[in-house]
TrEMBL record:
Belongs to the GGGP/HepGP synthase family. Group I subfamily. Signal peptide: none annotated. Prenyltransferase that catalyzes in vivo the transfer of the heptaprenyl moiety of heptaprenyl pyrophosphate (HepPP; 35 carbon atoms) to the C3 hydroxyl of sn-glycerol-1-phosphate (G1P), producing heptaprenylglyceryl phosphate (HepGP). This reaction is an ether-bond-formation step in the biosynthesis of archaea-type G1P-based membrane lipids found in Bacillales. Its cofactor is Mg(2+). It catalyses: sn-glycerol 1-phosphate + all-trans-heptaprenyl diphosphate = 3-heptaprenyl-sn-glycero-1-phosphate + diphosphate. This is Heptaprenylglyceryl phosphate synthase. It holds the Pfam family PcrB. InterPro entries: GGGP/HepGP_synthase_I, GGGP/HepGP_synthase_sf, GGGP_HepGP_synthase. Pathway: Membrane lipid metabolism; glycerophospholipid metabolism. Homodimer. NCBIfam families: GGGP-family, PRK04169.1-3. Sn-glycerol 1-phosphate binds at residues 16, 163-168, 193, 213-214. Its EC number is 2.5.1.n9.
Length: 242
């Protein structure tokens, strides 16, 4: 399999599943066979090794890439197709920028399969979201800040992707577009509150990769449709590929 950073360049639509929420086998089968490009396993609270392993094992039964997003080092499950490491660029706590990552690498550094690991530079924008509270993110910002975070992620930190995160809320297109302006090659992820076709289209035009999470648990049929909503929309101003 190619490096995760290369594989990510082909992701247009991804589902994010939460190990702390339950999903029936038939729902999981539909999610994994709906034509999405990858399933990311991750969440903010109640994440354990046991619930992460259980969900990852179930997903790996299906022919879809299964990638774990690591928020707690003790929950890392060997055998996933890749590992995404969040770096919360607008966190006011050092912990979510380098400290948690440093501790994990100090412990497990000799065994990390780096070709299957990629950093996601997050900018968390929904003030009331669990992730914003947990990471003490500074969510108040102007569009120029987003452009600057995007440049910082790509040109200073050399991150493969910037993630505009509105978890639980549909975000502002102008903010996603401001992030776009700062990027040349790094990929732009958007996630947050997608529940209708028009919303998916707007964000698919602005971003490279659209993440659908909650909708899987709220309205499975709509979530399955979201694959088509995203994939039938062309992005404009996409990051340049090599
Ligand atoms: C969450 O960005 C993802 O990390 C998706 O957001 O759950 O609101 O779809 P939703």
């Amino acid at each position: 399999m190619s490096m995760l950073t290369e594989r990510m360049k082909t992701w247009r639509h991804v589902f994010k599943l939460d190990p702390n929420r339950s999903l029936s086998e038939s729902a999981l089968e539909k999610v994994c066979t709906a034509g999405t490009d990858a399933v990311i396993v991750g969440g903010t609270d109640g994440i354990t090794y046991e619930n992460s392993r259980e969900l990852i094992q179930r997903i790996t039964e299906y022919p879809v890439q299964c990638v774990q997003e690591i928020s707690v080092e003790s929950a890392v499950v060997p055998g996933a197709d890749g590992y995404l490491i969040p770096v919360v660029l607008n966190s006011s706590s050092h912990r979510w920028v380098v400290e948690a990552q440093h501790q994990a690498i100090r412990k497990y550094g000799d065994w990390i399969p780096w070709q299957d690991v990629a950093a996601l530079g997050y900018v968390v924008l929904h003030r009331e979201s669990k992730v914003a509270r947990l990471t003490e993110s500074r969510t108040e910002m102007e569009s120029a800040d987003l452009t600057a975070y995007a440049r910082l992620a790509e040109f200073l930190f050399r991150m493969p992707a910037l993630y505009v995160e509105y978890s639980g809320m549909y975000g502002e297109e102008r903010m996603v577009r401001a992030a776009r302006q700062g990027l040349e090659k790094s990929r732009l992820f958007y996630g947050g509150g997608i529940s209708r076709e028009e919303q998916a289209q707007v964000m698919s035009r602005a971003a490279d990769t659209v993440v659908v999470g909650n909708l899987v648990y709220q309205d499975l049929e709509a979530a399955l449709q979201s694959v088509r909503w995203v994939k039938e929309t062309e992005t404009n101003g996409a990051s340049q590929d090599d």
